[in-house]
Design a protein that fits this description.
Strand content: 25-35%
Helix content: 25-40%
CATH class: Alpha Beta
Structural class: alpha+beta
Number of helices: 3
Distance between the termini: 41 Å
Order of helices and strands: HEHEEEEHEEEE
Length: 145
């Protein structure tokens, strides 16, 4: 019994510490670039919640929509991740042209449902489950597991 209580306390403390840095924010508290991005590419979607993950050295934002889509932004409001439901597609306008061309040529019946970017590369998931990695210029690097 003591062991179970210890485990439960550890789990509770982990989730308490994890969530202590995240706070719900209003749309107008997002960086201006993030607000503009949402107005431009997701104006037809209802926002259910927006979070700010405020760490000592960094600040990230996450916006969730009623249909299950979500977009992550860095502290400046630049998107870092866009994820939509499997029957929708990530707005084509935000995907680099080289990636769009590659997907259209190599995977004609597929579309992007998840795209993540960092300083070095893009990670893309297609609606058929295929994961592809591109360099920061949108050039194909490899298929991922």
């Amino acid at each position: 019994m003591k062991r179970i209580m210890t485990i439960l306390m550890a789990v509770f403390m982990f989730f308490s510490c994890e969530s202590s840095n995240s706070k719900v924010v209003d749309f107008n508290q997002l960086p201006a670039k993030a607000q503009s991005f949402i107005r431009t590419h997701f104006s037809d979607k209802e926002i259910t919640m927006a979070f700010c993950d405020c760490d000592i050295f960094d600040k990230d934002y996450e916006v969730r929509f009623a249909d299950g889509a979500k977009v992550d932004f860095d502290k400046d409001g630049d998107w870092t991740s866009v994820e939509v439901r499997k029957n929708d597609g990530v707005p084509v306008a935000i995907i680099p042209a080289a990636i769009n061309s590659f997907v259209a040529e190599k995977h004609q019946n597929a579309f992007v449902v998840d795209i993540d970017k960092d300083r070095r590369e893009y990670n893309v998931e297609l609606n058929n489950g295929i994961d592809i990695v591109f360099d920061k210029n949108g050039n194909f690097k490899r298929y991922d597991d």
